[in-house]
Amino acid sequence: MLTYDKAVEWIHSRLRLGIKPGLERMQCLLEKLGNPHEKLKTVHIGGTNGKGSTVTYLRNILQEAGYSVGTFTSPYFERFNERISINGDPVSDEDLTFLVEKIKPIAESMEQSEWGSPSEFEVITAMSFYYFAEMKPVDLVLYEVGLGGRLDSTNVITPMVSVITSIGLDHMQFLGSRLEDIAYEKAGIIKRSVPVIAGVHQKEAADVIKGRALEMDSDLFELGKDFSVERLSILEKGEKFSYHSPSLHETYELAMIGTHQMNNAALAIKVIELLSEEHVINVEGTHINAGLKKSSWPGRMELLSDKPEIYIDGAHNPEGISALVKTIQDRFMEKRVTVLFSALNDKDLRPMISHLEEAVDAIGFTTFDFPRVASAEELYGLSSHPDKVKVSRWKEFLQEKIPGLKENEVLLITGSLYFLSEVKPYLLNELKNYRKK
Questions:
Q1: Which residue, among 192, 189, 222, has the nearest Cα to 207 in the 3D structure?
Q2: First and final C-alpha spacing in the chain
Q3: C-alpha torsion 194→289→325→51, nearest 10
Q4: Quick check: 291 and 61 in contact, CB under 8 A?
Q5: pTM of the predicted model over 0.90
Q6: pLDDT per position as a tens digit, 191-201
Q7: Residue that terminates a domain, selected from 275, 294, 313
Q8: What is the DSSP letter of 147?
Q9: Which CATH number does the domain housing residue 121 bear?
Q10: Do 280 and 324 belong to one domain?
Q11: Helix or strand run (H / E) with residue 336
């Protein structure tokens, strides 16, 4: 019998196998499990940024309407189990251990096969299929693409709707260096005659998606053309916006902030519209309203403290930085903004840092214990900000910074989601101690 710790350790041991693009190995693994993915009703969500937020909007709306909703997301933020959840509740330690005991002998038996042994992500994806189909059946599952789309291990499903949230320059070592190349990989999730919803704004990328939808005889619904969103006002803790489509004109409020979050919400509403028109679900306007208001996603302009004002945001690629800069300019231009930034060195860091610097008053560069992480010195060297600092110990930096924050100041910690997953629990504890003083 495996313990939970040993089960997670075995999953992580698969990382040594690296990323293995292609679906043949995944199909072989699923066949040995009885093809559980074929029993599920799914929505498939790909794109560079915005996948997690779109998933959480959809989940909350569907939950409000009384549905049980499975979600498969990555990476996890605080605990591994989060990746496989039902109605926002992560898989239990016991069920995760059982899943590993089920899949481990199959995965290891494939070592000598034509396709080889499955990677970490393939194993987790297969676990999720079995969990949602056989152990804890749900009404439908929202599957977030891991990397790219065309060759991603989630791409064995035939969903009811496919969603491509956005296209940006990320994971270029795997997906290509041009927007068209990346769009081609993302568009690989489009299945024959399955409708696709896209929030892509660059013409060269949008054209690739249009071409693929035409080729697959799939109806395409584009944000800004077939449905649209307009900000009505910036709320203290959220956004108010109008949504327009041929069959729906409504005003909504979000608890999450930023123009990009309104776009992500619009994609989720369009999915609800399509599934409702097909009579797959029965969702009312009150469910959409309540679901959007309740939605939050860790590390996405997440407010950790009102006084002092502290946010964390996982802006880990150029598109994420652009969204963050726009949010700062929309909301905080009357305040002094200090940023603490850390990132992995497989990103195109110089343009990201240059863009971020345009919107902030001071910036600190730090590092943390993780493979491929950039050093504080490396990040500092890429910066030309007049008020920049190297931060060798980010915990000490926060301990010193928090007590001195004034009413008109904002502290924003951003960059790698892996960094934020270390910062958040530490910072919440530090804030608790600070308030006791």
A1: 222
A2: 47
A3: -30
A4: yes
A5: yes
A6: 999 999 999 99
A7: 294
A8: S
A9: 3.40.1190.10
A10: no
A11: strand 336-342
